[in-house]
Amino acid sequence: MTGWEELCRAALPSAHRCLEALRTDPLSRDNWNRQHQLRGRLSTKEWKGSALEQWEFEVTGGGRVRYLVSPETSTVILVYASTRHPKDTE
């Protein structure tokens, strides 16, 4: 994913913290300011026939990683990574 590579170039320590959070506890609610499920129409996203929770991790002030979590397979699916804030939440 090119956005992930861009995030790593811009903010490697923060991207590493994000990766560790997604590997260890992608549904954590301990740091709500940085990691949370999106709300409203963005709270779920269709993936291979299933509606999965869509979460976001704030890597930098504008940089975001969005991901889905499949409880059936314990898989995290990255759907967005960028140094820029997504426009759909404005």
Give an account of the 3D structure.
- This protein has two helices and five strands, in the order ααβββββ.
- The chain has helices spanning 2-10, 12-24, and strands spanning 35-37, 44-47, 50-58, 64-70, 75-82.
- Strands 1, 2, 3, 4 and 5 form a five-stranded antiparallel sheet that branches.
- A hairpin with a 5-residue loop joins strand 3 (50-58) and strand 4 (64-70).
Estimate percent helicity. 10-25%
Number of helices: 2
Mean pLDDT: 91
Q: Helices and strands, in N-to-C order?
A: HHEEEEE
Computed over alpha carbons, the radius of gyration is: 12 Å
Question: Main sheet?
Answer: 5 strands, antiparallel
Strand residues, percent: 25-35%
Could you tell me the number of beta strands?
5
Structural class of the secondary elements?
alpha+beta
Q: What low-confidence regions span 5 or more consecutive residues with pLDDT below 50?
A: none
Give the CA-based shape: globular
Task: Compute the separation of the termini in Å.
Answer: 24 Å
Notable characteristics:
90 residues; single chain; alpha+beta; 5 strands; five-stranded antiparallel β-sheet; 2 helices
